[in-house]
């Protein structure tokens, strides 16, 4: 991107962040007024802060701290990282929007910021990933361990994750070291993007943009899940899945068959359509 | 129920609670005597309290608190809710009995009260649900988030759950917003009662009385699992399952076939018979 | 083993422990120097301690404590148990080596000691198991409960686990009361070794030496998984699996067929080969 | 007091409490609005509570708790005691008013409620005293110990203290077992009301109504400080002091001399006049 | 002492410790039974421990810990020190007996062990002192700082303190680096044994055996307070005080006069007679 | 000061801070190497930080936090205040130097930074004072309350304190609202700079540069202690003290007499000479 466009993009990102932060504060203020028992929580996590990055750093620092990794240390680490890298802030904004748009159970942006373990684990991972690529690996791995303990979400700090990603429910998600997740992907709980053995090297799945991966799906090895593909809940996938097709079952099969798989045109990672393929799935008859 | 019967029922519920609480105290006293290292824990959680509701409120408050949601606040919230709603106390009693009867690894009522994350998550959910239907949604969702973090059990506060329910092991259970779970149901760990997409509305499973759902089963959409049905471990269920039948596999099939499925007469949610269908499951041959 | 050999074996175990501890301290020292933000953590967990058992007891005590089970009490319990039983220390050493050899994402022994929830849960389980066989059951169960809450790893204290065992990622693992796991086994996350109903007695799987169990596999009942067998990810296994064969799918089938299953000669629990069977698995075609 | 008057008095006390609580909430609301960084603190301590007794119980529970005496336990103890004894609540109200009237540094009632260690120590003492006279001595002494650790204010739980008492600054105050303090007394920091040796029995000072005791004064033995007397800062008093006289110095002398001591007519415990006697104190010449 | 006698003395010290520990456990058991709300505290601090040194180490570790000095670290430090040095244990026993004999407000040994900040500060000081003479000065000073923060008792780790010492109330006590305190001394709160300026060297008081120092007394410089001397409350002492005499006032004078001071024969540090000198103190007339 | 000089002065202050910070890190590194048990503490408080202001903010945040005022909030407040006001940093540097020069028990700058409650209370007060003059009074008072609880040092946030001030031992110090303390003053523990009654207005002492105030001295009212004056331990001062004179006793008298008091030429606040006046103090004869 030319420098001019980059600046413009950054400035519009900053505006988007401002707008979102104003929404979040308004929501929190409304909730604090209607529910005094929660007001202390809302003030400490949101309303006392001057920016999204401060609120998020505070919340993550207090969630992920332990008796041997103090909240002040983590707060400092998060705040320094978010403050110095606008792309992390932009990703957080895109992720918040993704949750808000795709999960009908999400009642507000502040609800997601405070309560969605998938969102929080992902933002903490983005910081761990930054530490990893700065070769601060022991710190990245310590943070990884805290995320795995606290949220039961286990994303290796080397894994690369795009923007606008929704980890819904998120408990039990495992993402391996060389996995890559594209933009606008939605991943349900208990999903594994795993490796294939004890050899090192590039050994984890590559998830294209707009993919939807159902609950409990297991994808193993350096396989490619094409753009806009859909992986059914509970599927076990060991080889590539073409773009805009649907793989289901254990072992996974393409809906419509290997030769002429059914194609869908939308972006399932955004539409979140988990089950429309049923009528086409000939084996699925109780 | 006529008012007279209701009073009688409440009084017998109160008696049941008294009896159970006396059992729990006797168990805890015996354990404190035999194991001084645990006595402090048993006194603080059970023996220093004058009622089951106080003990449970104390235990949940200390389990679910965080640096931004203090134990005193949660204790107060739990105690006020349990004290003012006898149906919540009766449900807790029924759940304790269910665990004790159905799980051979459960050695005592106090063992369940203190240590079963499924039991504790369910009681905390019942409080969150009560807040939800009182339109105290931000507080309900904050509580929901704590339960999901601490127990890795993610039950939306709007979900309705009957009495005598066993969440065995419980880690990884996900229950969506419009799900309904009947009485005397048993649900193993990693079970998902999930939705079908990003549209709101009634979109989660309805689980009939006496159903047994095996570990890792995934049930998606507004489907009906009939009374006394049995869902095999690891099954993926996307359409209705008739009463007293068994669905297994991914994709799930009825044991005995769609046309003339085998019927069992007992209440599998109570008998906890996970595997008797094997001999009938023709595909199941290693 | 004759007494002389036993002493020799113990002495070589002690040497192995010394060597490993020296490695761990060297790694931690190097990391503390390169990353001051982590140095406090590394000193408190490793570098301030004089032995592996002290470091491990400190770390587990601080990880597993709660407001009602204090870190000092747990530290004392762990230290006394590890100090008085060299077989527990030898098992910890074997487990550390297993992680280091088998998991390419494991960058150092100290990384495993500090951050691998599977390793930590397993060592805490070994202590709980020792308490169980000493008939200190309430304490064993309280510890079990803390492990299940903190690591989302639920291993019944009565379950017997061999040496050189790797629980990779570990979130969601459930191991029942009468399960037995052999030596050099590798078990991925979300694996269930479950029971079959509400009757007591011997009702959980027996896993032979060198077995590899893929992510999300569910094995139910008192079935025998033969030495060196391999269970594919997401499989549901309800009957015995012969040694050195591979079972995959839901319901699980033997690769190569029931009559003449393919046999592999290596120890998959050590080679961690998850996917080489694909070409042989005729059904696996997307 | 006849029952009718008692009820009337209680009812007007309840009104006074209501009025004060409304003031405190208004102050806290104003402060929360002007200072978001403090709003979380103000909501958790004051604004989320429905009564002064709940706010005070919460605040004391969180201030005085330790890792072995949990905040929930103390909160429960304080709340039960304040709820069941209106005289304790009336004393707290009188003490709050006393601080507000007598200490020019006190900017508001909420300031006193939250921040005055003398006020907080005194209210916690009133609860410990109630436990003492109920023969719950070990608990009273444990509470006494926490007050002495946290506030550096050491009042034996058997000591009797009137209403409208101001402990200003309070650090270092020591009040012995058989001491009695009247109404409307003001006591500065480092004041000792001590005993005389190792014999038991009635051995501590009796402080009349309206007395003012300056900073660092030491009064030892079962001596009587008459109503409205004034004890100068740093004085050491070992024998009785007549009403409305002033004792100063080490050893203490009566201002005006033993035979014809100067008399003042006001209530120095309320006027807080520490130094007007200087001109009369012939020895006092630098 | 010849080796044989030393062994005998150690064995009788061990017996005294055993006897005292049995008393303490019996007291705590009685209190736990009569007061369930305190039982958890009593079990965690006393009844779950197998020896006085373990109980004391646990209690001090939990009292003195902070977010940057963990309880497990302090517990380990205290336990190792008390276990390896029987003279520290003997001193603790002597101090417990001293409190019990001399303070009429002390209702039991367990009361002193748990609640007397002077006793606890002194035992923690003994450990800090041991570290100091082992040249582990930074650790000794860190411990000193925690004692000063938590108990408001500030004893320099280099100061030497005898056995059977009572620090009564203890708040505000300051003891300087080169101070020495003999056996069977009793020191009230706010007592200062201070230095004389900014030069180093031997510059603090030397307190003989059996001395009694009243509340708020200030003794400055390398002065000698002779055996069995008595220092009145609030006195300021800057020069030597002969054995078995009484110094009172600011500036301090000998009772009876400098030339022929009154002599008392008893050991005031044990008799705790604070005030019998009044009749002799001619100046003392209000 | 002209702008150019101001910049120069600031730059040399910054250099002094750099130099001191380098000293502190070197000391901490040396101590961490010699004492592994303390290394975690030294890394978290000093060695992991990039500047004195970060280290101090971290340390104060962790010392002063409570369950209702989180460490992250306080850390943020301290860091923002120290970062934006170089005069606060310069004062901290001057205070550290003052301790190091004047207190022979101070073994290093890091010892003071970590362990001197007087130093820490004073720096926290400087932040509270800044909040006070910015009209953020409720926050200033909440901080004041935490300082008084944690350090037993009670300095009203409105009090003005110069640079190079030593609060030695510090427990029990009370400084009132309108008190002013000059530069290079040394104040021992239990010193009171108190008011005179319940009227507001300017009512507390004004302490000139270079003054030394001994332990337990009480100075009351709007009196002026002249430059370089010395107040003896335990003195009670109610009227002005001329510059470079010494006041001792209760009631205080000038050494040498009121008419021709002895004059000393040095700066006692720096020389810390507590007792050289004894020979001149005619009354001082035991």
What does this structure look like?
With 286 residues, the first copy, chain A, is α/β, with parallel strands linked by helices. The first copy, chain A, folds into two domains: 1-153, serine acetyltransferase, domain 1; 159-286, UDP N-Acetylglucosamine Acyltransferase, domain 1. Helices cover 46% and strands 12% of the residues of chain A. Chain A has helices at 3-34, 36-47, 52-64, 71-84, 86-102, 109-115, 117-133, 137-151, 268-271, and strands spanning 154-155, 160-161, 166-167, 174-175, 180-181, 186-187, 192-194, 206-207, 212-213, 218-220, 224-225, 230-231, 236-237, 246-248, 253-254. In chain A, a hairpin with a 4-residue loop joins strand 14 (246-248) and strand 15. In chain A, helix 5 (86-102) packs antiparallel against helix 7 (117-133) and helix 7 (117-133) runs antiparallel to helix 8. The longest helix of chain A is centred in the N-terminal third of the chain and has 32 residues, at 3-34. At the D-E interface, helix 8, strand 13 and strand 15 of D face helix 2, helix 3 and helix 6 of E.
Distinctive features:
homohexamer; alpha/beta; serine acetyltransferase, domain 1; UDP N-Acetylglucosamine Acyltransferase, domain 1; six-stranded mixed beta sheet; five-stranded parallel beta sheet; 9 helices; Ser_O-AcTrfase (chains A, B, C, D, E, F); EC 2.3.1.30 (chains A, B, C, D, E, F); amino-acid biosynthesis (chains A, B, C, D, E, F)
């Amino acid at each position: 991107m030319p420098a001019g466009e980059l600046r413009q993009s950054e400035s519009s990102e900053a505006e988007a962040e401002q707008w979102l932060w104003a929404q979040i504060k308004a929501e929190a203020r409304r909730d604090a007024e209607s529910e005094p028992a929660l007001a202390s929580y809302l003030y400490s996590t949101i309303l006392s802060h001057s920016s999204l990055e401060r609120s998020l750093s505070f919340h993550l620092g207090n969630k992920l701290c332990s008796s041997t990794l103090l909240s002040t240390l983590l707060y400092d680490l998060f705040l320094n990282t978010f403050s110095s890298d606008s792309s992390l802030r932009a990703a957080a904004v895109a992720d918040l929007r993704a949750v808000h748009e795709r999960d009908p159970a999400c009642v507000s942006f502040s609800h997601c910021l405070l309560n969605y373990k998938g969102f929080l684990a992902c933002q903490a991972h983005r910081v761990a990933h930054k530490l990893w690529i700065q070769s601060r690996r022991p710190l990245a791995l310590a943070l990884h361990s805290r995320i795995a303990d606290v949220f039961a979400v286990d994303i290796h700090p080397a894994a690369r994750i795009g923007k606008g990603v929704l980890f819904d429910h998120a408990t039990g998600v495992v993402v391996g070291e060389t996995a890559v997740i594209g933009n606008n992907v939605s991943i349900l709980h208990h999903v594994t993007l795993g490796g294939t053995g004890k050899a090192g090297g590039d050994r984890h799945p590559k998830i294209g943009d707009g993919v939807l991966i159902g609950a409990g799906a297991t994808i193993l090895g350096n396989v490619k899940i094409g753009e806009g593909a859909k992986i059914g809940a509970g599927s076990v996938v060991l080889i590539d899945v073409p773009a805009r097709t649907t793989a289901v079952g254990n072992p996974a099969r393409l809906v419509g068959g290997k030769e002429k798989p059914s194609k869908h045109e939308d972006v399932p990672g955004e539409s979140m359509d988990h089950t429309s393929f049923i009528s086409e799935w000939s084996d699925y008859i109780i």
